[in-house]
Structure formats: structure tokens, C-alpha cells
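Deviations from the work plan: none for this task. Representative record:
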Amino acid sequence: MDKLQQYLQHHAEQLDVDVPTPEVWQQIQQRMASPQKPVARIRRLPQVLRYAAAACVLGFAVVGAWHVWQTAQPSALAVNHHLVPGKAAPKPTVTTAEKTQTPPTPTPQLTETALAGVKKMAVTPRKQPAEPNAVTVLQSINQSFTQVINLQRARVNTMPLLAENPSYFADFKVAFAQMDNDEKVIKKEIAQAGTLTNDLLDRLITVYQQKLAMLKQLQNEINKTNSRYKQGRPTAENATTYFLNI
Amino acid sequence: MWIGTKIIARGFQPFTQLVLLIAAQHYLENAQHIPTALLHQAQMGDTSAMQLLYQQYSKAMFNICIRMTGNHADAEDVLQEAFVQAFTNLRQLNNVQAFGGWLKRIVVNACIKHSKKNVYWQEWEDETHEMLLANEEEAWWLQIDMALVHQQIKALPNGCRQVFNLFVLENYSHKDIAGLLGISEGTSKSQYHRAKQLLKQNIMQQLQHHG
């Protein structure tokens, strides 16, 4: 503490020479008189309402937890395209650079039960005794598969690409677009036929399965290139990170 | 019997309140200490009790505000804001004996808020101030009238005025000032040194002009 500070603190009361005008108190009084007490209002909430609010919050929390649990379930829909009947899936072409650097990609493993689950999901509407409208069945299948595919797409899109830029995976994107086209063609044929034949349904399911298989393959490929990159460089802090938009 | 006593007590309630307020006012004139009952009444929303508290503290608080803001109008605005805030949150004050310090903190915080809104801070670190502070010159302030000092503190430029007041009169450290005003510690020290120099220079000029 310097001397000036000491001196002024010691004589602080002598510094108080100004006086506020009486209007200040009048304005304070006016403001205090105006009814603005949100805190008091909250305190007056009935006990029942508090419990109701708590129950609502708890309900939302439970629903949220259930939703998270549902989405976090290990996807049983990883489909092996080797098990798919009918024509083989158009494998996405891989760049020459990748071919020289990486061993052949191991095909994703799939249990028979998982495939049965997928098949069942798609086939169930056909077994209904009363043949429903083709559009309804189509919507149902489309909704079920699209949900799973979108989930997988979201996973792939949020994976950081440490080793390669997105153009390295462009072939996958092209293949995916091709599958989209195939899907549209089949849907158009169903619309033209006016009914959902076994052949059309099988083709549609195959396309969906191919999509899922390709997304899984892409995910594996990204994981592989990332892990290889991390092994080469212990710290990946300075690396430029890209994300796919498939 | 009990009901009768209750009715009589209720009848006397305004009278007892009046007596209490008169006693409190008398007490305030003679002492710095605030009666607990008065604060409790203010906590219950009694405007008369609030007015007494205002009368007791407004002058000191207003002078803090005017030294921080530098002008009468802004000081009154800040004072009003601070008292409204204090009276609104008076129920949160558990230790009524600490009312003075609590109110002062509210006022100083309101002043800091006002300063942050209205003062453009330029980072300015002068390395020489440490040396100059170490070689403190003679105590030029000893014979100066405190009213003149007060006037010249108000006339200090924005920025250094706030730092000077917070450091010298409110006893904040440079580190605290830096945190509160969002400036560096070095800037706070430099502004304080600048304020000191300007204060001396202006007071000396005033003394020369007025003999």
C-alpha cells in the first residue's frame, strides 16, 4: 500500500462531499412499488404443480434415456453381401493408391440371425393374410431400411478422416448414388405394376442390403486408414481432419 | 383473555411501528450502526425502513458512484440501480450486520458494470511505473483540501479514474481490478500510475490558479 493510498483511505470520509438529489429516492420508491417480483411468484407455485413439473422432467428423462438406449443398440443389420441371394452387389472401385497400400478389405461379419432379422423385417407384410396395399407395404419397408441406412450414414459422416481427404472415398459415393438410382428404378417399376411382386421386393431388399454393406465397408476402410495414420504419427494434433458427406 | 390481548396488540401495531421508526431514525443520527429490527422491517418490504436505510447510506454510496462515473447524472443512475437491486435482494442477506459492506459491494459492482459498458479500454502497459512507484516522491497531498482532491478525482479521464478509485479507495488489488474490468494487470498498474500523475498535475495547476 503506497502512501497516497494510505492517506486517502484514512481521510475517505472527507472525500464524500457530493449529495444525490431527492429525485433518486422517489425513483427508487416508484420502482420498488411496481409489481415485479418473479422470485416471489415462483415461490407461490402450489406444491402439486411442483410435483407435476418434476414428474414431467422425469418422464422426459426416461423417454430420452430409452431413445438413447435404442439408438445405441449394436446394429444387427450389418449385412454381408455374400449371403444375399440374387445378383452380386456392385463393389465400389478402389483407387490404385489404396490397392498398393492396403490388404484386401475383410468382408464384414454377419450372423445368420441378423440376416434373418432383416429379411423378416422386410417379408412380414407379405405374409399377412389380407394383402395390404402395395404402397403401404413399400412405405413400411422403405421406412424400416431407410432408418437403419441413415443411422449408418450418420456414423460414417461423423467419422474424422485423418489420413485421406474425402476425394479418396469418392468411389464409395458414386456407388452409393448408383444404388440410389437403382432403388428409384425399382420403386418406379412397383408403382407401374401397381402391386408388389416377390421379384420386385427381393430386388428392393437387395439394394438396401447392398447400401448397408457398402456403408459398413466404408466405415472399415476409414477406420483402417485412420489407425494406419495414427501408428505412423503418435500425435495427430496437427493433422487436417476431413469429414465425408455421403 | 388471549383473544382480547391479540386485538389490543393488533390495534397498537401501527403505533409500535411508528415508535420503532422514530427510535431508529434517532439512533441513526447518533450512530453508524444499523438496528437489526430496521433491516428486518426493510426485508419485509417496509418502505419507511428502506427510506431510512437510504438516508443513512446514500451519501457515501453516491460519492463512490460519482468518483467512478465522473458525472452527476450517471452517478445518480448507478446509485438508483444499485439501491433497487439491494432492496429487491434484501431477503437474501442473512447477516444483517454486514449490510453496509454488502451494499457497498453492490454499488461498486454496479459502477464496474457501468464502466465496462461505457469505457473503451486500451491495453497500455508501461514498464517504468514500477520503478517510479518505488521511488516515491514527497507527499505532495498532505496539505491539499480533500474537497479539491475529490473534485480532481472526478475529473480524471475514463479508465484511469476507475482504476484509481478501485485501487485506492475500494482497496482492490491490481489483479482483482484486471479481472473485474477485463484488462491486464499491467494495464491496471499503468492506469493507476497515470491517474496519480494526472491528479498531482491537475491539483498543482488548480492551486497555482487560485493561489
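Residues 75-115, 122-130 of chain A have pLDDT under 50 and may be disordered.
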